[in-house]
Design goal:
The chain has 216 residues and is an alpha/beta fold. It folds into two domains: 12-51; 60-211, no CATH class. It has helices at residues 4-7, 12-16, 19-51, 60-80, 101-115, 130-135, 201-208; strands at residues 96-97, 125-127, 143-147, 151-159, 168-178, 181-188, 198-200. Strands 1, 2, 3, 4, 5, 6 and 7 form a seven-stranded mixed beta sheet that branches.
């Protein structure tokens, strides 16, 4: 025997309401809050673009310059930072005349091609370590050199004026062996004596890196 509740069917509206309807109603209830939060985030983002500076994009030229500085800065620091040269008046006549440097460079190149050795029998030349070459004062009355099997640097303090009124300049000859043949260029930078053939700093800076002192 059925009770009164079991015999009576459920109301029609209960049959029409599903779980989907219930979830949709809940979403509609929070939708105004979600909309407000979204608008707030948009406004905050718009404000931040004026408060936080935009990243600066480096141009290709800037990147190339940065790479150049990283590679060449140590060599430039050494070349431009060599100890200053001073000579007593009584020793002016002992300075190497600049006019003799082309012949000196040719003699060194010929000796290296003939024997792979510097011509100590023909020139007054002191061989030193890279640290001494770059960081210590040079002798005034002789050539100074540092190097390895394929690269030699020869330097001198030369007089580009007259014995009575000397004007000192440095000369650095870069002697490099490639394919069994030694050739040389003079380092051509301002305030240096650079007879032909010469090369700019940018052309030879990387070649000099094997002969930098430790730490450079």
């Amino acid at each position: 025997m059925q009770t009164e509740d079991e015999a009576q069917p459920p109301p029609l509206w209960q049959l029409l309401v599903t779980d989907g309807h219930v979830q949709a109603a809940r979403i509609r209830a929070v939708q105004p809050w979600l909309t407000s939060i979204g608008i707030g985030l948009i406004l905050i983002g718009a404000l931040l673009q004026f408060v936080i500076p935009a990243p600066v994009l480096r141009s290709r030229d800037q990147l190339v310059q940065q790479e150049y500085d990283a590679l060449y800065a140590p060599v430039r620091t050494l070349v431009l930072g060599l100890p200053s040269e001073r000579v007593a008046t009584r020793d002016y006549n002992k300075l190497v005349p600049a006019a003799e440097i082309p012949a000196v460079a040719a003699a060194i190149e010929d000796a290296l091609n003939a024997s792979w050795k510097l011509p100590h029998d023909r020139l007054t030349l002191v061989e030193v370590s890279p640290t001494t070459f770059w960081l210590e004062p040079w002798p005034f009355f002789s050539l100074i050199s540092t190097g390895n099997d394929d690269l030699k640097l020869v330097g001198a303090a030369v007089n580009v004026s007259t014995p009575s009124e000397p004007k000192l300049r440095r000369w650095i000859g870069i002697f490099q062996q490639k394919n069994g043949r030694w050739r040389h260029v003079s380092l051509g930078i301002p305030e240096y004596f650079a007879p032909a053939p010469s090369a700019s700093f940018a052309d030879v800076a990387l070649d000099l890196k094997p002969l930098l002192p430790p730490g450079y």
